[in-house]
Automatic annotation (TrEMBL):
GO terms for cellular component: cytoplasm. Residues 197-316 form the Ketopantoate reductase C-terminal domain. Keywords: NADP, Oxidoreductase. Residues 3-170 form the Ketopantoate reductase N-terminal domain. PANTHER family: 2-DEHYDROPANTOATE 2-REDUCTASE (PTHR21708:SF45), PROBABLE 2-DEHYDROPANTOATE 2-REDUCTASE (PTHR21708). The keyword Signal does not apply. It comes from Lentzea alba. This is 2-dehydropantoate 2-reductase. Signal peptide: none annotated. GO terms for molecular function: oxidoreductase activity. Belongs to the ketopantoate reductase family. The keyword Ubl conjugation does not apply.
Amino acid sequence: MKIAVLGAGAIGAYVGAALHRAGVEVHLIARGAHLAAMREHGVRVLSPRGDFTARPHATSDPAEVGEVDYVFLGLKAYSYASSGDLLAPLMGPDTAVIAAQNGIPWWYFHGMTGHPLEGQRIEAVDPGGSVTAVLPMERAIGCVVYCSTEIESPGVIRHLEGTRFSIGEPDRSISARCVALSEAMIAGGLKCPVEKDVREDIWIKLMGNVAFNPLSALTRATMVEICDHDDSRDLVAQMMAETLTIARAAGCDPNISIDKRIDGARRVGHHKTSMLQDLEAGKRLEIDAIIGAVVEIAELTRVPAPTLRHVYAAIDLLSRTSVVS
């Protein structure tokens, strides 16, 4: 098995290090000081499950890697459409792409045989078909990340919690390529269940992201601060309830309690969401996949979602007026 990690940041480098520890041929594609450190010292993982160092090949040039069996995408979803030049040298006839992204993926309605929206393109995450042109639907393996990591310093990954990477085919089949990837991930010390319908995991995680990410960026509050403020907690609950209704209208019925989902977020404590961290760092906000696509699916399924629409309007304006480095 040969795997390239394109965008070997906090999550990508952690996954690459785990797979390399399992004996997989891994190639990390990164840039800057982080790449230089990984080349010189390998990837140092600091984890409550035990520290370790892995030394997979690291490069900034995918042409050095060539065709692989799998590409693990550690890029933000808004970077997919412009990643064609990086992806092209890695793509063989059967190369699969694992998109470890937050929110709704570009392939969401692909493979939903019999569903009225089967094959529907979601403009928010595939504008003009630009992502599909780079990442054809048949290459996609869904992936939902239940893992928190950060780059403590170049080449050093701090693993905070979670090791689960749920994967699955858009057409709900249990494929040989998913099973093989799952076995490799498990051998590397990760949890990697192959789900018959990974969309349920997408919506369960999205229930938290769709509410806490934009609200944290708009208020500069941590997750526990949002939960402990009565009115903002009610706002989160309204957004989650609307999201569940949209999920069901789109053909998925997540088995999750809103109160439990909120309480689970509260237990994370004074954690800044990725969107708030991006805002403070002057980076582009990942709003299209996390909330824009949900609002678009609400329109497609004719589900009223006034709270989501209002919050989306506010976070979209913030993203347009923020300075992006």
